[in-house]
Amino acid sequence: QVQLVESGGGLVQPGESLSLSCSASRSIFSIYDMAWYRQAPAKQRELVATIAHNMKTTYAASVQGRFTISRDNAKKMVYLEMNRLEPEDTAVYYCKQEGPLSYWGRGTQVTVSS
């Protein structure tokens, strides 16, 4: 079974940057689209960014211009570079692999607070 593990979350101040990583195992990886989602307390999980197998990317309007998603197929890793973080970015961030079956990581907490 595919396993995804996120890392890099933490506490930062508004305006700071943070980098998240997602490591995949037991996955072909390179043929599947990957995504980052986030979920704040008492809110629905929302799509943050996607990166397709062909490297095409999409972003939620709320993070466009501030976040960058990337992947390294050789390392089976997907990354999320987050810049100019805002309190509204506070959430648990999840990595997801798309495909006939979808797989989720357990999440990593990002807290943006003064």
Explain what the structure shows.
The protein has 114 residues and is mainly β. 0% of the residues lie in helices and 50% in strands.
Structure, briefly:
The chain is mainly beta.
What is the average of the pLDDT values?
97
- For the report, how would you describe the main beta sheet? 7 strands, mixed
CA(first)-CA(last) distance: 40 Å
Helix content: under 10%
Strand content: over 45%
Outline the secondary-structure elements:
Blueprint: E1 3-7, E2 10-12, E3 18-25, E4 34-39, E5 46-51, E6 57-59, E7 67-72, E8 77-82, E9 91-97, E10 103-104, E11 108-112
Could you list some keywords that capture this structure?
114 residues; four-stranded antiparallel sheet; mainly beta
